[in-house]
UniProtKB/TrEMBL annotation:
Database matches in SUPFAM superfamilies: ATPase domain of HSP90 chaperone/DNA topoisomerase II/histidine kinase (SSF55874), TPR-like (SSF48452)
Any Pfam family: HisKA_2
Keywords linked to the UniProt accession: ATP-binding, Coiled coil, Kinase, Membrane, Nucleotide-binding, Phosphoprotein, Transferase, Transmembrane, Transmembrane helix
Residues in Signal transduction histidine kinase subgroup 2 dimerisation and phosphoacceptor domain copies: 354-426
Domain of life of the source: Bacteria
Entry protein name: histidine kinase
Reactions that this protein is recorded to catalyse: ATP + protein L-histidine = ADP + protein N-phospho-L-histidine
Transmembrane segment boundaries: 302-321
EC class (word): transferase
EC number: 2.7.13.3
């Protein structure tokens, strides 16, 4: 089965590989089961089931593992933490993996290139690009010295990613990676590289060459079983067609991509549900074994005690049996209640997570639809209205990104105001054609969810108004937020020399500001472009 598993992993057919492990795991001895579980952590991570991969790795890390198994688990855990932006935990896992390689030199030939790839990725993701590039070159040198053909194309890929400011070198590394993947007959990696090279030309606005590469990816992906890879290919094809003024073709490929994304999300959901059941049974089995070991140890102690204290125990036997029976009944009731509560909690947690995921996806789809509609509008006035609508929904989306509802949180959970405010300002900076600088003076403060969203919408309207109406060559926005007793005071101004917002009493922006201030149970004053808004912090 291991050969079949390696073949499925080589071709990125992770759902089938996961099913093979789950169906056959019970037929192996404990040592072989552990090997399969270590491999399963990698498969779950590749499938994007990070919570499940972390739970399984946590169970494994607390059990007896060989040095090589420990190394593989630490490398996969680094990737999980890296994806979840946990820099501190990622560094801990990298350091543990590096220490294992130092302590066990025999692990180095098979694993050192892969370790260097993960180490380079850690530094690149966390902003240390020069260090990451040096480590990637070290990985390439080592892979060539030990003829590590399986990891060498991955090294070329990360070297390409490291050449962020040199498109020609990035393209050369990408093409080298594509060549090496073809030698390995790694179909899914070939698709991914075609897509990466096409996107590189797309970003250079060379749409014809981008189209050639993406067509190669489409032709090569006919037998692909990795749905999200195929969806990414069709999504990029749609964008290329749009840039080449072929809206019908763009819409066709967009629909193909959307269908594949939906299939992928359904597949992820089904796998997550199955994995929850499997991990529950795994935990149950582990608990039963631990309980059995405790019972064995307890029995031994009891035998010794019985041998020494036969006479005393004989007198107390009736009382012990009676209490034991009562305790067993109580334990069974507690166990049944805990099991029911656990199942209920897992179901609710899954539903809440699914809801969070769908809300964020739906907001992203709405933003995409608004962008499509804006591009099709003939009137500049309607384009501006669509842009304003885009910014308002983007403000709502940022709030959802900073706070995720969960059964482990309540309605009084807080959002950090400074992070939320910076994100809103940065969104306007990135989308506006004007040069915008801003100054923020915010005391360490947080807002409840039901106040953060109205606050964000008010700030969005103020910034939008300044961009539109402030007459100045270089726009500077100023925001101060002070906590005075039990109230929050917001002061906002810009450096414009003219202001005509006040003459438009029916302005939608003004209506939104007044409505949101009312929702916050606050009040505001305005002197031209200077706003002062006060609302309770309860």
């Amino acid at each position: 089965m291991r050969k079949e598993l390696d073949n499925k992993i080589q071709n990125s057919d992770y759902p089938t590989a996961l099913e093979l492990i789950n169906q056959n795991r019970e037929h192996y001895n404990p040592e072989e089961k552990t090997n399969l579980d270590v491999l399963k952590v990698k498969i779950l991570t590749e499938l994007g089931l990070y919570d499940e991969a972390f739970k399984l790795s946590q169970n494994l890390i607390n059990s007896k593992l060989t040095p090589e198994q420990q190394l593989k688990i630490h490398i996969e855990r680094e990737l999980i933490f890296e994806i979840n932006n946990d820099e501190k935990s990622s560094k801990i896992e990298i350091d543990k993996a590096e220490q294992l390689i130092k302590n066990y030199p025999d692990l180095k030939p098979k694993n050192y290139t892969h370790f260097l790839i993960r180490k380079s990725s850690y530094y690149r993701v966390n902003g240390h690009r020069e260090i990451a590039f040096e480590i990637a070159n070290e990985a390439k040198k080592y892979a060539m010295s030990v003829n590590d053909e399986s990891n060498l194309p991955d090294v070329e890929l990360i070297l390409g990613l490291g050449n962020r400011n040199n498109p020609e070198k990035r393209l050369a590394h990408f093409q080298r990676a594509l060549y090496l993947y073809k030698r390995l007959h790694h179909n899914e990696a070939i698709n991914s590289m075609y897509n990466n090279i096409s996107f590189l030309y797309f970003s250079k606005q060379d749409y014809k060459v981008a189209d050639v590469y993406i067509d190669s990816a489409i032709a090569n992906s006919k037998n692909s079983r990795v749905l999200n890879y195929r969806a990414d290919i069709f999504q990029l094809k749609s964008e290329i067609m749009e840039k080449q003024n072929q809206p019908d073709s763009a819409l066709h490929y967009y629909k193909l991509a959307s269908g594949l994304y939906n299939q992928f999300n359904n597949q992820q959901r089904d796998l997550k549900v199955k994995e929850l059941g499997i991990q529950f049974n795994f935990q149950k089995e582990k608990t039963e074994k631990e309980q059995l070991q405790k019972n064995i140890a307890g029995t031994r102690k009891l035998n010794i005690t019985l041998f020494i204290s036969v006479f005393v125990l004989a007198c107390l036997l009736w009382l012990i049996l009676k209490n034991k029976k009562k305790i067993e009944v109580q334990k069974q009731e507690i166990s049944d209640n805990n099991l029911a509560l656990k199942n209920n909690l897992e179901q609710k947690q899954f539903l809440v997570q699914e809801l969070n995921h769908r809300v964020k996806n739906n907001l992203a789809v709405i933003l995409s639809l608004i962008d499509f509609q804006k591009d099709q509008a003939d009137s500049s006035e309607y384009k501006n209205r669509f842009e304003d609508l885009h910014q308002r929904i983007k403000t709502i989306m940022i709030a959802h990104e900073l706070y995720s509802y969960s059964v482990n949180h309540n309605d009084n959970a807080l959002i950090e105001v400074e992070s939320y405010t910076n994100r809103i300002f940065e969104t306007h900076q990135n989308s506006s054609q004007r040069v915008i600088d801003y100054k923020i003076d915010i005391e360490n403060s947080t807002l409840k969810v039901d106040k953060a969203l109205p606050f964000g919408l008010i700030l969005n309207e103020l910034i939008t108004n300044s961009i539109k109406h402030a007459k100045t060559e270089s726009l500077i926005l100023d925001l101060k937020l002070n906590l005075i007793d039990d109230k929050i005071e917001l002061s906002y101004s810009d450096n414009g020399t003219n202001f005509d917002f006040e003459n438009k009493k029916d302005s939608l922006g003004l209506l939104i500001i007044e409505g949101m201030v009312k929702q916050l149970k606050g009040n505001y004053t305005r002197d031209k472009a200077n706003y002062k808004i006060t609302f309770p912090n309860d």
